[in-house]
Design a protein that fits this description.
Blueprint: E1 6-10, H1 13-35, E2 38-42, H2 49-55, E3 69-73, E4 75-77, H3 87-96, H4 116-131, E5 143-146, E6 171-175, E7 183-187, H5 189-192, E8 197-202, H6 208-216, E9 232-238, H7 239-242
Parallel strand pairs: 1-9, 2-3, 2-5, 5-8, 8-9
Antiparallel strand pairs: 4-7, 6-7
Helix pairs in contact: 1-2, 2-3
This protein binds 6-phosphogluconic acid (6PG).
């Protein structure tokens, strides 16, 4: 089933952060109203930093139900805790240390573990525990934020990686030779595609070629392989990242 992504193009990185932050608040309020809690997976990398900073300084802080928000991670680099390349560190510095989300509702991947396979299975158990899923069932996030690299990777799902074919395990350890930090832990496609909403954030000229390849030329790159089975797929791009998209792709 081909999912038609909704592509939102905004002027610049600041507008992207504003758009993404309001999406998070909107989805949070809807999820809490419907189910009493909001299940969010954060993206790593640099692009979401401004979005997290925006969420940490909302004009009306009460509009975001932090007390009813459960926070997970889409992936983590296997580095010591507090390392500058740690996604947990980035999210803590820009968001988690600044908002009243109960610490018991923040679930980091143990990137500092000596055994990334064990850390991946442990995170899968955590997901099952918090979502209340049984064996073979997938957790359904209300929102998963994702970035993408110039090679089309997303989370830690890299081109050519055997984990792209994973159909059962919700979380996997990966070795990404091309990445600055090769050892990583990542959510897999089954979990990502089970989400109610997946939102890609893309900013900057250096992303324009891969955006065209994925959204206009349908190149089978990992980020382009994200297709929620029963959910919304959003691409929030600034003008620079969307610059090479043919006009008929910009809805
Ligand atoms: C990570 C991310 C990764 C990231 C892309 C884009 O841990 O590295 O999850 O998938 O989103 O590499 O990174 P930038 O936003 O820094 O371009």
């Amino acid at each position: 089933m081909v999912v038609t992504p909704e592509i939102r193009i905004v002027p610049d990185a600041e507008a992207l952060a504003a758009e993404a932050a309001s999406l998070v608040v909107e989805r949070a309020r809807a999820a809490v109203a419907a189910r009493g809690r909001f299940m969010l997976a954060l993206s790593g990398g640099g692009t979401p930093r401004a979005t997290y900073a925006r969420l940490a300084s909302l004009p009306e802080p009460d509009e975001m139900p932090w007390d009813r928000t459960w926070i997970f991670f889409g992936d983590e680099r296997c580095v010591p805790t507090g390392h500058h390349e740690s996604n947990l560190r980035m999210a803590s510095d820009t968001l988690l240390s600044k908002v009243p989300v109960p610490p018991g509702q923040v679930f980091a991947m143990r990137g500092d573990s000596d055994d990334s396979d064990a850390a991946a299975s442990e995170y899968a158990k955590t997901l099952a525990g918090v979502f209340g899923t049984r064996r073979g069932e997938l957790p359904r996030f209300d929102l998963i934020l994702l970035g993408f690299g110039v090679d089309g990777h997303t989370a830690s799902l890299f081109p050519g990686s055997p984990v792209l074919k994973e159909v059962f395990r919700p979380v996997a350890a990966v070795h990404a030779a091309a990445a600055t930090i090769p050892e990583r832990i990542t959510l897999t496609f089954p979990v990502i595609n089970a989400a109610a909403c997946v939102a890609f954030l893309g900013s900057g000229t250096e992303k324009a070629k891969v955006v065209r390849a994925m959204l206009a030329e349908r190149a089978p790159l990992p980020a382009a392989m994200v297709e929620p089975t029963d959910g919304t797929l959003l691409w929030i791009l600034d003008r620079a990242a969307a610059a090479l998209l043919p006009s008929d792709t910009k809805r």
